[in-house]
Amino acid sequence: MNAACDFHSRPALQPIVGKIPLSPAELDDIPHAMLADETAPTPPERAAIGAYWRAWRTSCKPLKDRFLATYFAGEPSVVSVARLTTAARRRTLTDLAAGRQTYAQANRALLQIGAAEVAAVALLRSSGETPQQTAAIQALGVIATMETDSPSSDPQPFP
């Protein structure tokens, strides 16, 4: 999955190489330069962010969905956490493409979303499908906060 989801070589995404994570490996360890980039995306970069999301949705999401269905079929809460995480990442990229965030803000949010997902899944897997799953999903508070803080009438640049 990692190789299929590495978008660094796609010509349409060249404006955002080094600005946002374009591979699972980079998403897991966002470089310091990306976390410190206080610039806002330019119009060509905004278009590239939309192209990235569309490419991810068509190339990687089906792989991720198959992985979740195969390895977490008996753990619906883990699948729910993964879906919430995807929604939060989309919201972050939507806000970035709309100019509501800088690259640094978006990358720090992506880092927090990833950490919250790892913590929630670890708690779910250690406790099983029990009332403690509520606590695990609450560990995704960063996601819930992001969804609540965003205006409901946001235009979605990614269909």
Separation, N- and C-terminal Cα atoms = 24 Å
Q: Pairing-aware structural class of the strands and helices?
A: mainly alpha
| Shape assignment | globular
- If helices are DSSP runs of H or I spanning 4 or more residues, what is the number of helices? 7
Q: Strand content of the residues, in percent?
A: under 5%
Describe the fold and architecture.
With 159 residues, the chain is mostly helical. The chain has one domain (11-149). 64% of the residues lie in helices and 0% in strands. Helix 5 runs antiparallel to helix 6 (132-138). The radius of gyration is 16 Å and the shape is globular.
Please summarize what this structure is.
The protein is mainly α. It is built from 7 helices and no strands.
Annotation keywords:
about 160 residues; mainly alpha; 7 helices; about 0% strand
